[in-house]
């Protein structure tokens, strides 16, 4: 299992943006979704998740509103902004270029 600190810098932001592209979620829900989709390979701790959420909110890529969670507790729900959707597209293009370049190097070495 790879903790968030083992992810390439910026990868956590991409994972959060992609997760929020589907629906608004609270922080714990985002972490669980990433863990579930990665089949438990990625576990995002609170010490990585919440600073990333605050950073993305500061950049204007996500916004937050208070609401009730599944267990009826007060929680901050995050959603993608219009700027965040554009950023997600750019991040996905960058990710494709990066992974293609890494794959080329790994095939040659």
CATH class: Mainly Alpha
The unreliable regions are none
Give the SSE string. EHEHEHEEH
Counting DSSP E segments of at least 2 residues, the number of strands comes to 5
CATH topology grouping: Arc Repressor Mutant, subunit A
Strand line-up in the sheet with most strands:
2-5-4
Based on the coordinates given, report the CATH architecture.
Orthogonal Bundle
Helix content: 55-70%
Overall geometric form:
globular
The count of domains is 1
Query: How many individual helices?
Result: 4
Largest sheet: 3 strands, antiparallel
Helix/strand-derived category reads: alpha+beta
- Give the N-terminus to C-terminus distance in angstroms: 26 Å
* Fourth-level CATH superfamily: Winged helix-like DNA-binding domain superfamily/Winged helix DNA-binding domain
Tell me the radius of gyration.
15 Å
Share of residues in strands: 15-25%
Overall mean pLDDT: 90
What does this protein structure show overall?
Helices cover 58% and strands 18% of the residues. It has 109 residues and is of the alpha+beta class. β4 and β5 form a beta hairpin. The chain is globular, with a radius of gyration of 15 Å. 20% of the residues are buried.
